[in-house]
Amino acid sequence: MKTVIISLGGSLVAPKKDFLATRYLLAFKKLILKFSKKIRFIIIVGGGQLCRFYQAEAKKNGFTKDELDWVGIFSARLNAAFVKGFFNQNAYSEVLMSPFEKQKIKENIILGSAWKPGWTTDYVGVKFCQIHGATEILNLTNIDYIYDKDPKKFKDARLFKNLSWLDYLKIIGRKRVPGGHYPFDPVASLLAKRLKIKLVSLNGRNLKVVENYLTGKKFIGTIVES
User: Fold this and answer.
1) How many domains does the chain have?
2) Under a CB-based contact definition with an 8 Å cutoff, are residues 163 and 223 in contact?
3) Digit-coded pLDDT (tens) for 141-159
4) Which terminus of the chain has a smaller tally of CB atoms within 10 A, N or C?
Protein backbone atom coordinates (compact mmCIF):
# COMPACT_ATOMS: atom_id res chain seq x y z
CA MET A 1 0.00 0.00 0.00
CA LYS A 2 1.24 3.48 -0.90
CA THR A 3 2.21 5.69 2.05
CA VAL A 4 1.73 9.45 1.77
CA ILE A 5 3.14 11.83 4.37
CA ILE A 6 1.13 15.02 4.86
CA SER A 7 2.62 18.06 6.55
CA LEU A 8 -0.55 19.79 7.77
CA GLY A 9 0.30 23.40 8.46
CA GLY A 10 -0.80 24.70 11.83
CA SER A 11 -2.24 27.72 9.98
CA LEU A 12 -4.97 25.38 8.70
CA VAL A 13 -5.76 23.97 12.16
CA ALA A 14 -5.43 27.14 14.21
CA PRO A 15 -5.44 30.12 11.82
CA LYS A 16 -5.75 32.51 14.79
CA LYS A 17 -4.54 32.11 18.35
CA ASP A 18 -8.16 32.08 19.55
CA PHE A 19 -9.82 30.23 16.66
CA LEU A 20 -9.83 26.56 15.63
CA ALA A 21 -10.89 25.57 12.10
CA THR A 22 -13.43 22.92 13.12
CA ARG A 23 -15.48 23.05 9.92
CA TYR A 24 -12.33 22.69 7.84
CA LEU A 25 -11.13 19.71 9.87
CA LEU A 26 -14.45 17.92 9.43
CA ALA A 27 -14.06 18.30 5.66
CA PHE A 28 -10.40 17.24 5.85
CA LYS A 29 -11.41 14.12 7.77
CA LYS A 30 -14.00 13.25 5.11
CA LEU A 31 -11.39 13.57 2.33
CA ILE A 32 -8.79 11.44 4.13
CA LEU A 33 -11.32 8.71 4.96
CA LYS A 34 -12.33 8.61 1.29
CA PHE A 35 -8.82 7.54 0.25
CA SER A 36 -7.64 5.68 3.35
CA LYS A 37 -8.51 2.22 2.03
CA LYS A 38 -5.96 2.63 -0.75
CA ILE A 39 -3.45 5.02 0.82
CA ARG A 40 -1.82 5.01 4.24
CA PHE A 41 -1.65 8.59 5.51
CA ILE A 42 0.81 9.83 8.10
CA ILE A 43 -0.29 13.36 8.98
CA ILE A 44 2.27 15.58 10.72
CA VAL A 45 0.60 18.59 12.35
CA GLY A 46 2.28 21.97 12.92
CA GLY A 47 1.77 24.63 15.59
CA GLY A 48 0.35 27.56 13.62
CA GLN A 49 -0.72 30.78 15.27
CA LEU A 50 -1.04 29.07 18.64
CA CYS A 51 2.70 28.36 18.55
CA ARG A 52 3.57 31.88 17.41
CA PHE A 53 1.37 33.42 20.13
CA TYR A 54 3.10 31.49 22.89
CA GLN A 55 6.58 31.96 21.47
CA ALA A 56 6.10 35.73 21.09
CA GLU A 57 5.26 36.00 24.79
CA ALA A 58 8.09 33.63 25.69
CA LYS A 59 10.63 35.75 23.79
CA LYS A 60 9.50 38.86 25.68
CA ASN A 61 10.27 37.06 28.91
CA GLY A 62 13.74 35.82 28.07
CA PHE A 63 13.10 32.12 27.41
CA THR A 64 16.14 30.18 26.19
CA LYS A 65 16.25 28.74 22.67
CA ASP A 66 15.45 25.24 23.95
CA GLU A 67 12.57 26.60 26.03
CA LEU A 68 11.19 28.38 22.96
CA ASP A 69 11.46 25.14 21.00
CA TRP A 70 9.59 23.20 23.69
CA VAL A 71 6.80 25.79 23.65
CA GLY A 72 6.53 25.25 19.89
CA ILE A 73 6.69 21.46 20.25
CA PHE A 74 3.84 21.29 22.74
CA SER A 75 1.76 23.75 20.71
CA ALA A 76 2.09 21.46 17.68
CA ARG A 77 1.33 18.37 19.76
CA LEU A 78 -1.82 20.00 21.10
CA ASN A 79 -2.96 20.73 17.54
CA ALA A 80 -2.17 17.15 16.53
CA ALA A 81 -4.18 15.73 19.43
CA PHE A 82 -7.09 17.95 18.39
CA VAL A 83 -6.91 16.76 14.76
CA LYS A 84 -6.62 13.11 15.83
CA GLY A 85 -9.83 13.42 17.82
CA PHE A 86 -11.81 14.06 14.63
CA PHE A 87 -10.79 10.67 13.26
CA ASN A 88 -11.75 8.75 16.44
CA GLN A 89 -11.31 4.98 15.96
CA ASN A 90 -10.31 5.44 12.31
CA ALA A 91 -6.83 6.64 13.32
CA TYR A 92 -4.07 5.09 15.39
CA SER A 93 -4.77 5.73 19.08
CA GLU A 94 -1.65 7.79 19.79
CA VAL A 95 0.02 10.83 18.25
CA LEU A 96 3.48 9.69 17.14
CA MET A 97 6.29 12.03 18.13
CA SER A 98 9.38 10.19 16.96
CA PRO A 99 9.61 9.20 13.27
CA PHE A 100 11.55 6.16 14.44
CA GLU A 101 8.45 4.67 16.09
CA LYS A 102 7.80 2.05 13.44
CA GLN A 103 5.83 -0.41 15.51
CA LYS A 104 3.19 -2.48 13.73
CA ILE A 105 0.15 -0.26 13.26
CA LYS A 106 -2.88 -1.61 11.45
CA GLU A 107 -4.65 1.72 10.99
CA ASN A 108 -4.15 3.59 7.70
CA ILE A 109 -4.40 7.01 9.35
CA ILE A 110 -1.62 8.01 11.73
CA LEU A 111 -1.14 11.40 13.36
CA GLY A 112 2.31 12.73 14.20
CA SER A 113 3.78 15.98 15.39
CA ALA A 114 6.87 17.74 16.72
CA TRP A 115 9.52 15.63 18.41
CA LYS A 116 12.49 17.44 19.95
CA PRO A 117 14.25 20.84 19.95
CA GLY A 118 15.89 21.72 16.66
CA TRP A 119 13.49 19.57 14.62
CA THR A 120 10.68 21.40 12.82
CA THR A 121 7.55 19.47 11.89
CA ASP A 122 8.70 19.76 8.25
CA TYR A 123 11.91 17.95 9.18
CA VAL A 124 9.96 15.34 11.17
CA GLY A 125 7.78 14.81 8.09
CA VAL A 126 10.80 14.13 5.87
CA LYS A 127 12.19 11.70 8.46
CA PHE A 128 8.86 9.88 8.44
CA CYS A 129 9.24 9.60 4.65
CA GLN A 130 12.69 8.11 5.10
CA ILE A 131 11.71 5.61 7.81
CA HIS A 132 8.42 4.54 6.25
CA GLY A 133 9.59 4.35 2.64
CA ALA A 134 7.46 7.22 1.30
CA THR A 135 8.74 9.04 -1.78
CA GLU A 136 6.70 12.23 -1.47
CA ILE A 137 5.41 14.64 1.12
CA LEU A 138 2.30 16.80 0.68
CA ASN A 139 2.86 20.20 2.24
CA LEU A 140 -0.56 21.72 2.97
CA THR A 141 -0.25 25.46 3.54
CA ASN A 142 -2.49 28.52 3.09
CA ILE A 143 -1.11 29.71 -0.27
CA ASP A 144 -1.57 28.33 -3.80
CA TYR A 145 2.07 28.17 -4.91
CA ILE A 146 5.62 28.64 -3.75
CA TYR A 147 6.80 32.17 -4.59
CA ASP A 148 10.20 33.85 -4.69
CA LYS A 149 8.95 36.26 -1.99
CA ASP A 150 5.87 36.85 0.13
CA PRO A 151 2.97 37.46 -2.31
CA LYS A 152 0.99 39.19 0.45
CA LYS A 153 3.68 41.89 0.69
CA PHE A 154 5.04 42.05 -2.85
CA LYS A 155 2.81 42.37 -5.91
CA ASP A 156 5.66 41.32 -8.18
CA ALA A 157 6.20 38.00 -6.36
CA ARG A 158 6.89 35.25 -8.91
CA LEU A 159 5.09 31.93 -8.56
CA PHE A 160 6.56 28.56 -9.47
CA LYS A 161 4.76 25.42 -10.58
CA ASN A 162 7.94 23.34 -10.70
CA LEU A 163 11.27 23.80 -8.97
CA SER A 164 14.40 21.77 -8.42
CA TRP A 165 15.56 21.46 -4.82
CA LEU A 166 18.65 23.47 -5.75
CA ASP A 167 16.57 26.36 -7.09
CA TYR A 168 14.22 26.23 -4.11
CA LEU A 169 17.16 26.44 -1.70
CA LYS A 170 18.50 29.44 -3.62
CA ILE A 171 15.20 31.21 -2.83
CA ILE A 172 14.98 30.41 0.89
CA GLY A 173 18.64 29.86 1.82
CA ARG A 174 20.17 26.82 3.49
CA LYS A 175 19.99 27.85 7.14
CA ARG A 176 16.85 28.06 9.25
CA VAL A 177 16.44 31.39 11.03
CA PRO A 178 14.48 31.11 14.33
CA GLY A 179 11.02 32.55 13.78
CA GLY A 180 11.49 32.54 10.01
CA HIS A 181 8.59 31.68 7.75
CA TYR A 182 9.22 29.26 4.89
CA PRO A 183 6.95 27.31 2.56
CA PHE A 184 9.09 24.34 3.65
CA ASP A 185 12.01 24.79 6.01
CA PRO A 186 15.63 24.76 4.73
CA VAL A 187 16.98 21.95 6.91
CA ALA A 188 14.07 19.68 5.96
CA SER A 189 14.60 20.67 2.32
CA LEU A 190 18.27 19.70 2.39
CA LEU A 191 17.37 16.27 3.76
CA ALA A 192 14.57 15.82 1.20
CA LYS A 193 17.00 16.75 -1.57
CA ARG A 194 19.52 14.17 -0.36
CA LEU A 195 16.84 11.46 -0.09
CA LYS A 196 15.31 12.42 -3.47
CA ILE A 197 11.90 12.97 -1.89
CA LYS A 198 9.35 14.97 -3.86
CA LEU A 199 7.60 17.90 -2.20
CA VAL A 200 4.10 18.79 -3.37
CA SER A 201 3.06 22.15 -1.92
CA LEU A 202 -0.69 22.80 -2.07
CA ASN A 203 -3.16 25.27 -0.61
CA GLY A 204 -4.73 22.93 1.91
CA ARG A 205 -7.68 25.24 2.46
CA ASN A 206 -8.96 24.14 -0.96
CA LEU A 207 -9.48 20.43 -0.39
CA LYS A 208 -10.60 19.93 -3.99
CA VAL A 209 -7.02 20.72 -5.00
CA VAL A 210 -5.76 18.04 -2.62
CA GLU A 211 -8.27 15.54 -4.00
CA ASN A 212 -7.25 16.39 -7.57
CA TYR A 213 -3.64 15.63 -6.73
CA LEU A 214 -4.47 12.35 -5.03
CA THR A 215 -6.51 11.23 -8.04
CA GLY A 216 -3.90 12.25 -10.63
CA LYS A 217 -5.90 15.16 -12.00
CA LYS A 218 -4.66 18.63 -12.88
CA PHE A 219 -4.05 20.64 -9.73
CA ILE A 220 -2.93 24.04 -8.50
CA GLY A 221 0.36 23.93 -6.60
CA THR A 222 4.13 23.57 -6.76
CA ILE A 223 6.25 20.46 -7.13
CA VAL A 224 9.84 20.51 -5.86
CA GLU A 225 12.05 17.56 -6.73
CA SER A 226 15.59 16.62 -7.68
Assistant:
1) 1
2) yes
3) 989 999 998 888 898 999 9
4) N
